[in-house]
Specification:
Layout (H helix, E strand, L loop, with lengths): L15 H6 L5 H10 L3 H10 L2 E2 L14 E2 L5 E6 L8 H13 L4 E4 L6 H11 L4 E3 L1 H6 L10 H14 L3 E4 L21 H13 L4 H4 L1 H11 L2 E4 L14 H19 L4 E5 L8 H11 L5 E4 L11 H15 L3 E3 L12 H21 L3 H15 L3 H7 L3 H9 L17 H4 L1 H6 L3 H15 L1
Parallel strand pairs: 3-4, 3-10, 4-5, 5-6, 6-7, 7-8, 8-9, 9-10
Antiparallel strand pairs: 1-2
């Protein structure tokens, strides 16, 4: 059965939110219910409410629909994309396949340079997951300097990407001219590429953000093609010292306003979040976003909980990601070991994905997911049964689990052994636990109790 809703030019609004509000159970919605093991009517009500989104551009024929929201599993986005100095179209398509293989629920094409359109076309043709973009990256390649951007050019770029099949777009419409002075004394200033470009434009022209000014026009494009808006956090903190400051929260208030405006036009929305946030501020950041944006799905980069580990920021951020996922973040944007250092390669994509699948699964456990708990229990039972092959099958990365075991106990004989090379047969606590005669122990305990009495 096909999952995609048929689209025709000039048709009425076809967004999943619009159809859900009319009470319809679309093929996309029913597929989401199947994948999430939820009742279709619950999914419909959550989409109608805006608390769940189904990013599904009507032109993305290869898409297998998925959902992002509080009632769904915690999702993971993987960023890929070429740069002006590094990578090629084929390499980015390979990264897409790798990200999908390791469990990415969505992929953002953040390509810059001269072949953005062709790269995106190849990615969309191959992607079964929703594809996101940041349209200003393509628009900026059409002008000599950021100051030459225009509202019309930005709208043309958004419309072109919508027609191409992009499922969601980061729109930095919340960065307002009045917010910029709040960034003046930050340690790292503005770290969002889109936010930085728009800030430069606003200062040069002494004018309001064109994405904010033309937001109603953007909504009309999104209504026509069912593009989900990912409200970008252009003023997110780029270091721990700048976390939870006035600039970040001023933009968040504007994102709450824009969320309401999008919902009024039946356009699906999620809200992007920080950034770099210390552990003690994570829960408060999630709760504030949920309150200001009326529980629209929260989509966070990390957050990174410390700044001291370049080369290991897939770990510093996965710590924060697990915690914000527990408290209500609906999608986690992965971070790779190359964060702050360079363009990720294929191995970096894998390392980032593994770190974030651990974080998302940990969050699902904390949120009470029966499916997550069943997976943990089954692997633990296989471990206690010394069923090594079943352990490997259930592992997040079976190949690595098997290779690490086989480094010291390579022979197939040891796949039946009731020990590993850490403890050996004499000291293995689970082996010794299994050798306890529990009936004899109970009898001895009863006798001792009788003697004492």
């Amino acid at each position: 059965m096909p999952y995609r809703t048929v689209f025709s030019e000039g048709a009425a609004c076809k967004t999943q939110m619009h159809l859900a509000r009319r009470g319809e159970l679309t093929p996309e919605l029913e597929r989401v219910a199947e994948r999430e093991e939820l009742e279709p009517t619950l999914v419909r009500d959550e989409v109608a409410r805006g608390r769940m989104i189904i990013p599904a551009n009507v032109h993305h024929a290869a898409l297998d629909p998925m959902a992002i929201g509080l009632k769904a599993r915690v999702k993971i986005n993987a960023n890929i994309g070429s740069s002006p100095t590094t990578s090629s179209l084929d390499e980015e398509v390979d990264k897409l396949h790798l990200a999908q293989r390791w469990g990415a629920d969505t992929v953002m094409d953040l390509s810059t340079g001269k072949r953005i359109h062709e790269t995106r076309q190849a990615i969309l043709a191959a992607a079964t997951v929703p594809i996101g973009t940041v349209p200003i990256y393509e628009a900026i390649e059409s002008v000599a300097a950021p100051e030459d951007l225009t509202g019309e050019l930005l709208l043309e770029t958004i419309d072109r990407q919508a027609r191409q099949g992009v499922d969601y777009m980061t729109i930095h419409a919340g960065v307002r001219l009045a917010h910029l002075p709040l960034c003046r004394h930050r340690v790292t200033g503005i770290v969002s590429r889109g936010g930085g470009l728009l800030a430069r434009w606003m200062v040069e022209h002494e004018a309001e953000n064109p994405l904010y000014e033309r937001f109603d026009d953007i909504l009309e494009i999104c209504r026509a093609h069912d593009v989900t808006i990912s409200l970008g956090d252009g003023l997110r903190p780029g270091c721990i010292a700048d976390a939870s400051d006035a600039a970040q929260f001023a933009e968040l208030d504007t994102l709450g306003e824009l969320t309401a405006r999008a919902w009024a036009r039946d356009v699906q929305v999620m809200v992007e979040g920080p950034g770099h946030i210390p552990l003690d501020q994570l829960e408060a950041n999630v709760r504030r976003q949920q309150q200001v944006c009326n529980e629209a799905p929260f989509y966070t980069l990390g957050p990174l909980v410390t700044d001291i580990a370049p080369g290991y920021d897939h770990i510093t951020s996965a710590i924060g990601a697990a915690i914000v996922g527990w408290h209500g973040t609906s999608m986690l944007c992965y971070v790779t070991p190359k964060e702050h250092l360079g363009l990720p390669n294929a191995d970096d994509v894998k390392q980032g994905m593994i770190a974030y699948r651990i974080a998302a699964h940990a969050a699902d456990l904390a949120r009470g997911s029966a499916r997550a708990h069943a997976w943990d229990r089954e692997l633990s039972q296989a471990r206690f049964d010394f069923d090594w092959n079943r352990q490997f099958e259930l592992a997040l990365d079976p190949d690595v689990a098997r290779s690490l075991h086989d480094e010291t106990l390579a022979d197939d004989y040891f796949k039946q052994a009731e020990f590993c090379s850490m403890c050996g047969p004499k000291f293995c606590p689970m082996h010794n636990f299994r050798d306890i005669d529990w009936d004899a122990l109970a009898t001895a305990a009863k006798r001792k109790q009788e003697v004492t009495a």
